[in-house]
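[Discussion] Sanity-checking designs against the backbone

I'm trying to build intuition for which residues belong where. Below is a structure token string of 83 positions. I'd appreciate it if someone posts a full sequence so I can compare it with mine line by line.
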């Protein structure tokens, strides 16, 4: 695995016939201020990471993260509030 964190915005249709047609879209990712994202972390489409968060190395963020949170694991979950 690469040490660089990765942001994935591509969204593919679930229907195989539509997917074969090459249809694809992108869904934005929102990252707040003062956010640290560890090496090897993945952030998936439509996720919002709030201000002042820490995303642990290797985490896979599949859901929105409220501000002032430490998230880790796969899927990422809040393990601590940072205020």
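Best answer:
Here's mine. Compare freely.
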């Amino acid at each position: 695995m690469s040490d660089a964190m990765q942001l994935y915005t591509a969204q593919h249709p679930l229907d195989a016939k539509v997917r074969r047609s090459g249809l694809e879209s992108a869904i934005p990712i929102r990252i707040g201020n003062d956010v640290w994202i560890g090496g090897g972390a993945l952030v998936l489409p439509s996720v919002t990471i709030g201000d002042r968060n820490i995303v642990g190395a290797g985490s896979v963020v599949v859901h929105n993260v409220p501000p002032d949170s430490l998230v880790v694991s796969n899927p990422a979950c809040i393990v601590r509030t940072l205020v």
